[in-house]
Design brief:
Blueprint lengths: L7 E4 L2 H17 L10 E3 L10 E3 L2 H7 L6 H21 L3 H20 L4 H22 L6 H12 L2 H14 L4 E6 L6 E5 L2 E3 L17 E10 L3 E2 L6 H9 L4 E6 L1 E2 L1 H12 L5 E5 L5 H15 L21 E8 L4 E6 L3 H17 L3 H15 L2 E6 L4 H24 L1 E3 L3 H11 L6 H13 L2 H9 L4 H9 L5 E4 L4 E4 H4 L2 E3 H19 L3 E4 L6
Parallel strand pairs: 4-14, 7-9, 8-10, 9-11
Antiparallel strand pairs: 1-19, 2-3, 5-14, 6-13, 7-12, 12-13, 15-18, 16-17
Helix pairs in contact: 1-3, 1-4, 2-3, 3-4, 3-19, 4-15, 4-19, 5-14, 5-15, 5-19, 6-7, 6-13, 11-12, 14-15, 16-17
Length: 536
């Protein structure tokens, strides 16, 4: 579509007008989803392969689906919003609708000031200077999220699904913020959960023939010795020193963790198991790439007390002894997974390792890397829960799974860094902080007043989406306690903390950063260049 339009350059005031049109179109599609009684958006597919339209309630997914506007000028503003919301959605999974509404309010307020003769660069500077004050105010309102009831209430405020919220509250109360929660599509109509004790990894036996020939196909071993390596064992003779060391140590069972074994090596294990001395099984080293495999070796070594034999440094199996083996109390393996309980690693080293991983997880920005770190911490701490999400139709199941993933991501952030009063109340409380910081400079006064007015926009949108009069509700909150919130479900002013109306602190702070920084950038755009799409 863009390719059919001619290249050109836009200048002020056309730039601000076209940005505003695009921003308004994008935010208007997202605004109805904000709040517990918000609506959804139906996406009509581009192709006929999916004849049914897609119903979406997630602002981040809506932003992803809008890939282009017909108006090339307005499309610049729309894509600016889209980029901001995708960044928020990928990192934290929530807060995208609040960020969109807040961003538009700041942009529109700044646009009025600039149109009246204000200086855009000075206005931008004061917007950015106000941000630390807002973040400090949110930090002061933060309190921990504790107890199953509080967890369930927050989950319900995120997903608005009573059954799913109850499961989420129970799961995170049991596992904590770093627990391993696997979300999978179910085949029934209800939600089912499966708790797995101990640490488990998504890598199974190297061969199905090493497992029992029953329907469960799961091998269980007691007091097993663990041998760790990153080798791909091709020659069966390579395993002789390992088996001899295990036999000399009179082990009850042996688990070989390796990258892979050849058919001849697997045959050797079959032959050994027929001798009925001690059972042996080989499982694959977890990880899809070299970095993941090194991380898995490091974690398994600390949990079991085994000394890994590394091919990357040229180590072989010739000098393997019983000192290289780790120990676990119980071990199990299937075709796709293995796990254990009661690893005999050094508890002190394990705690130090977990603390280091937690510190890295707080600093890392990449979503995938942070998820890997959370999975590693969950495996080290032990215990995991699988939630099977059912429904009446395939689209409902897929939508429920996406909703559960988004809820889980936001709840992890809330558990890790705390929560603040929700329903837009935390942003409303920030107005007093800004009011006390207003100075004599005209640009500063304008920037702070725009922010004070914009901080009301999310709460007003929530009230409006619930069918209430925003002015009436704001008046009722004016004379209420500082932590009071309006519960749109019961039409009452309640204590936000007691009623479970809370937002994740990290999500709200990220939304503020994104909204203010992106609005400040958009207000200082002076020209737009449309390039030609002609192929040279």
């Amino acid at each position: 579509m863009k390719g059919k339009q001619k290249p050109g350059v836009l200048f002020q005031p056309q730039v601000h007008h076209c940005l505003q049109r695009g921003i308004h179109q994008m935010v208007s599609a997202i605004r109805p989803t904000l709040g517990p009684l918000g609506g959804g958006v139906v996406i009509d597919h581009l192709y006929d392969t999916k004849p049914l339209p897609e119903f979406i309630e997630d602002a981040g997914v809506i932003a992803r689906r809008i890939i282009e506007l017909q108006d090339r000028d307005a499309d610049v503003g729309a894509m600016l919003v889209r980029s901001m919301l995708i960044r928020q959605h990928e990192r934290l999974g929530d807060g995208t609708a609040t960020t969109a509404v807040l961003f538009e309010a700041i942009f529109n307020g700044g646009l009025k000031y600039i149109a009246a003769g204000g200086n855009a660069m000075q206005f931008r500077k004061h917007l950015e200077h106000a941000l630390p004050h807002l973040l400090d105010a949110i930090d002061a309102m933060t309190f921990p999220l504790e107890g199953r009831a509080a967890l369930t209430n927050m989950a319900h405020s995120l997903c608005h699904d009573a059954e799913l919220a109850d499961f989420m509250g129970e799961s995170f109360d049991l596992l904590g913020e770093y627990g391993r929660l696997a979300l999978r599509e179910g085949y029934g109509r209800r939600l089912l959960k499966e708790y797995v004790e101990g640490s488990h990894f998504y890598a199974g036996a190297v061969a199905r023939s090493l497992l029992p020939e029953d329907a469960e196909a799961t091998l269980r071993l007691e007091n097993a010795a663990i041998f760790l390596c990153d080798h791909t064992v091709t020659e069966y003779q390579t395993l002789f020193p390992v088996l001899q060391a295990a036999n000399s140590a009179n082990v009850s069972a042996l688990v070989i963790v390796a990258r892979d074994l050849s058919e001849k090596a697997v045959s050797l294990l079959h032959a050994h198991n027929r001798l009925n001395r001690f059972p042996v099984i080989a499982v694959k080293l977890p990880g899809l790439n070299a970095d993941d495999r090194v991380a898995a070796l490091d974690d398994l070594s600390l949990m079991t007390g085994a000394t890994p034999i590394l091919a990357v440094i040229g180590a072989t199996f010739e000098n393997v002894s019983a000192r290289d083996f780790g120990k676990v109390r119980r071990f199990w393996a299937s075709t796709h997974e293995f796990g254990f309980v009661g690893g005999r690693g050094d508890p002190r080293k394990l705690r130090t390792h977990v603390l280091k991983l937690k510190a890295r997880a707080r600093k890392v920005l990449d979503v995938d890397e942070r998820k890997k770190l959370h999975d590693r911490i969950g495996a080290l701490l032990g215990g995991s829960l699988t939630l099977w999400l059912g429904g009446y139709s395939e689209p409902e199941i897929k939508m429920r799974k996406a909703l559960a993933e988004r809820t889980a991501l936001a709840m992890r952030a809330a558990l890790e860094e705390g929560v603040v009063p929700g329903g837009g109340i935390a942003l409303l409380n920030c107005r007093q902080v800004l009011a006390g910081q207003i100075g004599a400079d005209a640009d500063e006064r304008a920037a702070y007043r725009v922010l004070i007015e914009a901080l009301e926009a999310p709460a007003r949108t929530i009230f409006q989406n619930a069918g209430c009069d925003p002015g009436d509700i704001m008046g009722r909150l004016l004379y209420a306690d500082v932590n009071a919130a309006y519960d749109v479900m019961t039409d009452k002013v309640v204590d936000a903390r007691t009623a479970g109306i809370v937002d994740s602190m990290s999500v709200l702070k990220a939304g503020l950063r994104n909204a203010i920084s992106t609005a400040a950038l958009a207000l200082t755009i002076d020209s737009v260049v449309h390039l030609s799409h002609q192929k040279w």
